[in-house]
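Query form — protein PGF-CTERM sorting domain-containing protein

QUESTION: What is the three-dimensional structure of this chain?
INPUT:
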Amino acid sequence: MPNSLIVTPKRTVLLCILVFLLAAPAAAGSVARTITPQEGGLDITLTMTGIPVGGIVETLPDGCTWMETDHPVDRTRVSGGKVAFAVIGEETINYRARGPQDAAEAFTGTWEDLLTGESGTVGSGGVREPGSGVTPKEAPGFLPAAALAALAVAYRWRCGR
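ANSWER: The C-alpha coordinates for PGF-CTERM sorting domain-containing protein are given below.
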Protein backbone atom coordinates (compact mmCIF):
# COMPACT_ATOMS: atom_id res chain seq x y z
CA MET A 1 0.00 0.00 0.00
CA PRO A 2 1.41 3.44 -0.87
CA ASN A 3 2.64 5.43 2.12
CA SER A 4 0.26 8.34 1.31
CA LEU A 5 -2.79 6.09 1.87
CA ILE A 6 -1.81 4.88 5.33
CA VAL A 7 -3.99 6.44 8.01
CA THR A 8 -1.86 7.46 10.96
CA PRO A 9 -3.21 8.74 14.30
CA LYS A 10 -2.37 12.29 13.18
CA ARG A 11 -4.34 11.84 9.98
CA THR A 12 -7.25 10.35 11.94
CA VAL A 13 -7.35 13.39 14.21
CA LEU A 14 -7.18 15.68 11.17
CA LEU A 15 -10.04 13.76 9.55
CA CYS A 16 -12.15 14.11 12.71
CA ILE A 17 -11.47 17.84 12.85
CA LEU A 18 -12.49 18.21 9.21
CA VAL A 19 -15.72 16.29 9.86
CA PHE A 20 -16.55 18.58 12.80
CA LEU A 21 -15.85 21.70 10.74
CA LEU A 22 -17.87 20.52 7.76
CA ALA A 23 -20.75 19.32 9.91
CA ALA A 24 -20.97 22.50 11.98
CA PRO A 25 -24.29 24.23 11.45
CA ALA A 26 -24.34 27.46 9.48
CA ALA A 27 -24.74 30.66 11.44
CA ALA A 28 -28.37 31.44 12.01
CA GLY A 29 -29.76 34.56 10.42
CA SER A 30 -31.45 37.45 12.16
CA VAL A 31 -32.92 40.87 11.48
CA ALA A 32 -32.72 43.71 14.00
CA ARG A 33 -34.91 46.82 13.85
CA THR A 34 -33.81 50.28 15.02
CA ILE A 35 -36.36 53.10 15.06
CA THR A 36 -35.32 56.73 15.36
CA PRO A 37 -38.08 59.32 15.86
CA GLN A 38 -37.64 62.32 13.55
CA GLU A 39 -39.73 65.41 13.02
CA GLY A 40 -42.70 64.31 10.95
CA GLY A 41 -41.97 60.62 11.04
CA LEU A 42 -39.95 57.61 12.07
CA ASP A 43 -36.71 56.41 10.49
CA ILE A 44 -36.51 52.61 10.57
CA THR A 45 -33.31 50.65 9.93
CA LEU A 46 -33.38 46.89 9.42
CA THR A 47 -30.00 45.21 9.92
CA MET A 48 -29.64 41.70 8.47
CA THR A 49 -27.11 39.17 9.71
CA GLY A 50 -26.52 35.87 7.94
CA ILE A 51 -29.27 36.29 5.30
CA PRO A 52 -27.70 36.57 1.84
CA VAL A 53 -30.98 35.95 -0.03
CA GLY A 54 -34.38 36.29 1.59
CA GLY A 55 -37.35 38.45 2.34
CA ILE A 56 -38.69 40.69 5.07
CA VAL A 57 -42.30 41.70 5.62
CA GLU A 58 -42.86 44.65 7.96
CA THR A 59 -46.29 45.55 9.34
CA LEU A 60 -46.77 49.22 10.06
CA PRO A 61 -48.74 49.99 13.22
CA ASP A 62 -52.17 51.65 13.11
CA GLY A 63 -51.76 55.38 12.56
CA CYS A 64 -48.53 54.99 10.54
CA THR A 65 -48.24 55.42 6.79
CA TRP A 66 -45.46 54.51 4.39
CA MET A 67 -43.21 57.32 3.13
CA GLU A 68 -40.01 56.13 1.39
CA THR A 69 -36.99 53.78 1.38
CA ASP A 70 -33.42 53.59 0.14
CA HIS A 71 -34.09 49.99 -0.97
CA PRO A 72 -34.40 49.37 -4.74
CA VAL A 73 -37.94 50.04 -5.98
CA ASP A 74 -38.09 46.76 -7.93
CA ARG A 75 -37.45 44.82 -4.69
CA THR A 76 -39.91 46.71 -2.48
CA ARG A 77 -43.70 46.21 -2.37
CA VAL A 78 -46.15 48.26 -0.31
CA SER A 79 -49.70 47.05 0.21
CA GLY A 80 -51.87 48.68 2.82
CA GLY A 81 -50.02 48.53 6.12
CA LYS A 82 -47.51 45.90 4.94
CA VAL A 83 -44.13 46.45 3.29
CA ALA A 84 -42.20 43.58 1.69
CA PHE A 85 -38.48 43.77 0.94
CA ALA A 86 -36.59 41.26 -1.24
CA VAL A 87 -33.11 40.91 0.28
CA ILE A 88 -30.24 40.12 -2.05
CA GLY A 89 -26.90 40.75 -0.38
CA GLU A 90 -27.92 43.80 1.64
CA GLU A 91 -26.82 44.29 5.21
CA THR A 92 -29.19 47.18 5.98
CA ILE A 93 -32.45 48.60 4.69
CA ASN A 94 -33.60 52.08 5.69
CA TYR A 95 -37.19 53.24 5.36
CA ARG A 96 -39.38 56.02 6.66
CA ALA A 97 -42.94 56.05 7.97
CA ARG A 98 -45.17 58.90 9.06
CA GLY A 99 -46.80 58.44 12.45
CA PRO A 100 -46.70 59.17 16.14
CA GLN A 101 -43.43 58.61 17.97
CA ASP A 102 -45.08 56.27 20.47
CA ALA A 103 -45.87 53.89 17.56
CA ALA A 104 -42.20 52.87 17.48
CA GLU A 105 -42.85 49.95 19.84
CA ALA A 106 -45.74 48.62 17.74
CA PHE A 107 -43.85 47.74 14.53
CA THR A 108 -43.81 44.02 13.74
CA GLY A 109 -42.19 41.97 11.04
CA THR A 110 -41.03 38.58 9.87
CA TRP A 111 -38.06 37.45 7.81
CA GLU A 112 -37.11 34.37 5.81
CA ASP A 113 -33.76 33.10 4.54
CA LEU A 114 -34.45 31.53 1.16
CA LEU A 115 -31.18 29.57 1.14
CA THR A 116 -31.66 27.78 4.47
CA GLY A 117 -35.45 27.95 4.82
CA GLU A 118 -35.10 29.52 8.27
CA SER A 119 -37.44 32.28 9.33
CA GLY A 120 -38.02 34.44 12.35
CA THR A 121 -39.43 37.58 13.85
CA VAL A 122 -37.76 40.91 13.14
CA GLY A 123 -36.09 42.17 16.30
CA SER A 124 -36.39 38.95 18.29
CA GLY A 125 -33.08 37.38 17.28
CA GLY A 126 -34.85 34.01 17.26
CA VAL A 127 -34.83 31.58 14.38
CA ARG A 128 -37.52 29.07 13.51
CA GLU A 129 -37.21 25.86 11.57
CA PRO A 130 -39.14 25.95 8.29
CA GLY A 131 -42.84 25.65 9.08
CA SER A 132 -42.39 24.68 12.73
CA GLY A 133 -42.65 27.92 14.67
CA VAL A 134 -40.09 26.65 17.20
CA THR A 135 -36.47 27.59 17.73
CA PRO A 136 -34.23 24.89 16.24
CA LYS A 137 -31.73 22.96 18.27
CA GLU A 138 -28.69 21.17 16.95
CA ALA A 139 -29.63 17.71 15.71
CA PRO A 140 -29.00 15.46 18.73
CA GLY A 141 -26.11 13.11 18.20
CA PHE A 142 -25.30 14.27 14.69
CA LEU A 143 -21.76 15.51 15.32
CA PRO A 144 -20.77 12.52 17.50
CA ALA A 145 -22.22 10.18 14.87
CA ALA A 146 -20.24 11.93 12.14
CA ALA A 147 -17.06 11.64 14.20
CA LEU A 148 -17.67 7.94 14.82
CA ALA A 149 -18.28 7.40 11.11
CA ALA A 150 -14.99 9.15 10.33
CA LEU A 151 -13.17 6.96 12.85
CA ALA A 152 -14.79 3.83 11.39
CA VAL A 153 -13.64 4.83 7.89
CA ALA A 154 -10.14 5.53 9.19
CA TYR A 155 -10.02 2.18 11.05
CA ARG A 156 -11.27 0.27 8.02
CA TRP A 157 -8.76 2.07 5.81
CA ARG A 158 -5.88 1.37 8.18
CA CYS A 159 -6.69 -2.23 8.97
CA GLY A 160 -7.48 -3.26 5.45
CA ARG A 161 -10.60 -3.55 3.44
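ADDITIONAL NOTE: Residues 30-121 form a domain with the Immunoglobulin-like fold (CATH 2.60.40.1170).
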